[in-house]
């Protein structure tokens, strides 16, 4: 073989600087890992996605939300570094060991994340089936994910401690009782935080209500141990995180997201003011209804011998139903009902079950007040009396 003095001279010069050879080899290894990552993501991952898009039995909308293949592809550069780091010259054994342990830890975490992502994808597909309503599997999948991440944590710990996983489990078993006693509140809070996050039970900004603890306000902070709620009187309440799992509470987020808020209130009428309507009374009340609406087509409704003829309260219910159906601040896509409740000693309650088309507190109260002020003002026009308990002034007038 022909000698090249120039090449021998470069080698001799490079031997004087071992760090340069180490840096060059390390740079080459990193470049190989980057190139492998780019090839896998741009060629293999894209190819698999194009292939899956051609399969008719795969829901493309659900598949697009999850990145299982992308996560798995992250294993390639870690594997390249794990197997190639020992080829870097002049790199100390301790540095090689640390880099290999970090690469292994990254591989374990990536595998665990990929499995968790796949389980989420599987749950999303399963929820599309009608049977999922009666047999949900989300809780079981969350338990599997918890076990996977625990195993992942043990593998990473065993890698850095250079011990067998079963040896670690035996050591943890002896300390479990002490750890449970010392960190009882922390463990409970940690489990509760995982459940709250997994089930999306509470978010910052949610309005929650816990009557047994006197809490009614907005969540302003969520931490591991506590949740801070600012009540509507501007006081702050601190709730242990696990209380939201063990105790019941009301979250008003659904109301805010729906864009409407329920109105459920009643007015009690004096039962002695409820009676049948005559032709003259009916003619006077027609002016309160739209001209194109016929309120009484059946002449039998005015027959005094008909026990099923129209009453003033029945007509008033029709009026209120029409009033709510055309009210500009009532959500017309929600339930609108005007109904009776069980009669009481105070009279017959007439209840409104409807929804205001806003969730702003002040506007909601104004809409509700306006509706019931209108009901009280219109009741006498139909010959109805709103019940009101006698006051001291009424008693004095009666005695006088």
Automatic annotation (TrEMBL):
Residues 313-384 form the Mechanosensitive ion channel MscS C-terminal domain. GO terms for cellular component: endomembrane system; plasma membrane. InterPro entries: LSM_dom_sf, MS_channel_C, MscS_beta-dom_sf, MscS_channel_2nd, YbdG. Residues 185-253 form the Mechanosensitive ion channel MscS domain. Keywords: Membrane, Transmembrane, Transmembrane helix. One of its GO terms (biological process) is cellular response to osmotic stress. It is a multi-pass membrane protein. It is found in: Endomembrane system. The chain crosses the membrane at residues 26-45, 66-86, 98-119, 140-161, 167-191. GO terms for molecular function: mechanosensitive monoatomic ion channel activity. Belongs to the MscS (TC 1.A.23) family. This is Mechanosensitive ion channel. The lineage of its organism: Bacteria, Pseudomonadati, Pseudomonadota, Gammaproteobacteria, Moraxellales.
